[in-house]
Amino acid sequence: MPTNSGAPIFCKPQDLHLDEITLVRGGVAVFKALSLHLKESRIGLIGDNGAGKSSLFRLICGLDTPQAGRVTLPHGPNTVGMMFQNPDEQIIFPTVEEELALSLHHLKLSRHDAQACVRDWLAARHLAHWAPRAIGSLSQGQRQHVCWLALMIASHSTLLLDEPFSSLDLPGQALLRRDIAQAKEQIIVSTHVLDHVRHFERVIWLDHGTVRLDGLGADVCGAYEADVALRTA
Ligand SMILES: Nc1ncnc2c1ncn2[C@@H]1O[C@H](COP(=O)(O)OP(=O)(O)OP(=O)(O)O)[C@@H](O)[C@H]1O
């Protein structure tokens, strides 16, 4: 049974390699010979709309296959979990406990036992009342939170979070920031709100499918802000 209580234990981060990736979507080349080595525990992904952030995530988790090049995940694709920009693209079950039970499929439990595990896990996080709730009765932000819970209860090595703060209220954003800080998994966050990644050890600025800048969060976020200020002056 996975837990997230107590002090964070950082396992060895994934060592993801993208080598000379070319990806075409809708007839347009999103990436041409893109190479990245992703090994840090916390990585931010920033850039304008259409820069390629979601496309990069889709490549890493195997939803898209590159036309050329290779994505290498040392521990296999099942160790990568993704939180979609739109929770409705991710959630498939009608209740919270059923949705979270899906994340435990690797334990090969009966449906009854998996849902009991989910209820215990939620109770340990003071969220027992969420278990029976119908997904249809949740707000967009609450559904986004369910998607995050579904990732946390699973046993992935790497979590890809595509604009995970976009629908969350201020308390929800603070709680997610705390969860991200404490999580043992490698986490890559795509966001337009730079303060969520400015403190990260690494931020990658994507610009029309290329890496414009790659380095310390504070440096890369500052450079992107300066560029945006110039372009919008
Ligand atoms: N389903 C699709 N079919 C064809 N082209 C797509 C599709 N989704 C995205 N694209 C194209 O791929 C490029 C990269 O889009 P992507 O969604 O990866 O950008 P993004 O950086 O995540 O943008 P945003 O900040 O708006 O979420 C864009 O040129 C976009 O038009």
From TrEMBL:
Ranges for domain ABC transporter: 16-233
InterPro entries: AAA+_ATPase (IPR003593), ABC_transporter-like_ATP-bd (IPR003439), ABC_transpr_CbiO/EcfA_su (IPR015856), ECF_ABC_transporter_ATP-bd (IPR050095), P-loop_NTPase (IPR027417)
Coiled coil: none
Gene Ontology CC: one annotated term: ATP-binding cassette (ABC) transporter complex
Gene3D superfamilies given in the database record: P-loop containing nucleotide triphosphate hydrolases (3.40.50.300)
A Pfam family this chain is assigned to: ABC_tran
Cross-referenced CDD domains: ABC_cobalt_CbiO_domain1 (cd03225)
Assigned protein family: Belongs to the ABC transporter superfamily.
Protein name, per record: ABC transporter
Annotated organism of origin: Limnohabitans curvus
